[in-house]
Design a protein that fits this description.
With 400 residues, the protein is of the alpha/beta class. The protein is built from 12 helices and 19 strands. The chain starts with a helix and ends in a 10-residue tail after the last strand. Strands 1, 12, 13, 14, 15, 16, 17, 18 and 19 form a 9-stranded mixed sheet that branches. Strand 7 and strand 8 form a beta hairpin. Helix 5 packs across helix 7 and helix 8 packs parallel to helix 10. 45% of the residues are buried. The mean pLDDT is 93.
Length: 400
């Protein structure tokens, strides 16, 4: 029996009493992935990206481990909810236009002490001030550095379109604006190098492309390390009491941790290891989060139909954004239908051994987005479900 076949047998035994569709997290794999992230961070703390987890119980589990500290959230409403739930170090990774949320933040000393908001434009400071509604708490602020690689005089850009603050001088100028402004305190700098951390460099069947990605990423890491170091020095000249410099992501942990200017690493997807992280040379993780769909039809030889399955991930549309059949091995989508909203045909010889009601296990393309489809996660140890915990959705929260 292969290792994957053994996992399928374990998961089927563990969830025999539960009807699919369902989702699980293999805690042994989750914990092993967490340990690997810590190893690659070389002593720098890891701030957990909640967007990639979306389950309070699992956030608590990983933050109880040595090497993890703080949360990187994705909306202001989520940040406030987490802070009220007892998480006392929440960095909002994206600017917000949530006026009601800012009013709550500025009126509550506990929230203001626990949550740091992201800005990259004076207009965002104006919006926060206009939203205070009489609240006088000091708002903790982090500046975001644009990490994109610009080539040929800026005519070619590699990387996500995020912050407009690309140069150390631009970052320092906004830092001075924050320092001059009552009601704000500059405490951090963040830079997410998604073109390094979030792009696989060993795509099966594409050796030339993979080589090009590795060359691009090596150049990007060198350029960013120099520019980020200069940016941090420039901002510290304005705000000497800067508390943190956050960088990285699951795919670049060890490289970002090697930068002297960086004090902490962001990571989250590496806990679940969705299918997009199969294409990296820098690390190998264990798939920890899976979902199961039930066989409901047997339309012919070498074919079964499962209920549901159309769970595409965000990003530019393409086959790499689709979930993949994982267990039993050897199943594939029908190219004429793909993953359907209500039903999904699957082809391959293993289909002939599947009966009505059997489970087919899938891996999602991206990490936390899976939790938008399921109210609960079944936590598996060995071949037993040891706990069933709510996702954000199961607690009544869909923040985006």
């Amino acid at each position: 029996m292969t290792a994957r076949a053994a996992d399928r047998a374990r998961y089927d035994r563990a969830t025999a009493a539960y009807d699919a569709p369902l989702a699980l997290v293999d805690l042994a794999a989750f914990d092993a992935n967490a340990a690997d992230l810590v190893r690659r961070a070389h002593g720098k703390p890891i701030r957990v990206a909640s967007k990639s987890v979306r389950c309070r119980a699992l956030l608590e589990r990983v933050l109880a481990r040595e090497g993890f500290a703080g949360i990187m959230s994705f909306t202001l409403a989520e940040s406030l909810w987490l802070a009220r739930s007892g998480f006392d170090d929440v960095l909002l990774a994206y600017p917000s236009a949530d006026r009601a949320g800012y009013a709550e933040l500025a009126a509550d000393p506990k929230l203001a002490a626990s949550v740091t908001v992201m800005v990259d434009d004076v207009a965002q400071l104006d919006l926060i001030d206009a939203s205070r509604a009489g609240g006088r708490e000091v708002v903790r602020v982090c500046l975001e550095l644009d990490t994109s690689l610009r080539l040929f005089g800026g005519r070619v850009r590699v990387g996500a379109r995020r912050s407009p603050l690309h140069s150390p001088a631009q970052l320092a100028e906004l830092a001075r604006s924050v320092a001059r402004r009552p009601g704000f305190r500059l405490v951090g700098i963040m830079g997410y190098e998604g073109h390094v951390a979030g792009v696989g460099d060993a795509v099966a069947g594409h050796p030339v492309r993979s080589r090009a990605v590795r060359l691009m990423q090596a150049a990007a890491r060198r350029e960013l390390a120099e520019r980020r170091g200069a940016a941090v020095r420039a901002v510290r000249a304005v705000a000497p009491e800067l508390e943190f410099v956050n960088g990285g992501g699951t795919g670049s942990v060890q490289h970002t941790a090697a930068e002297e200017a960086v004090t902490e690493i962001a990571a989250g997807s590496g806990l679940y290891v969705p299918r997009l992280f199969d294409n990296y040379t820098s690390f190998t993780g264990r798939p920890a989060a899976l979902f199961a769909l039930p066989v409901v039809r047997r339309p012919g030889v070498g074919a079964v139909t499962v209920l549901g399955g159309g769970y595409p991930a965000s990003g530019a549309a393409g086959p790499d954004r689709l979930p993949v059949p994982y267990l039993p091995e050897g199943l594939r989508f029908d190219p004429q239908e793909g993953a359907g909203e209500v039903q999904t045909p699957l082809l391959g010889s293993p289909a002939d051994d599947l009966l009505i009601g059997d489970k087919v296990w899938f891996r999602h393309a991206k990490a936390g987005e899976l939790c938008e489809r399921f109210d609960v996660l079944h936590l598996v140890e060995g071949d037993t479900v040891t706990a069933t915990v709510p996702t954000y959705r199961g607690e009544g929260h869909t923040f985006l």
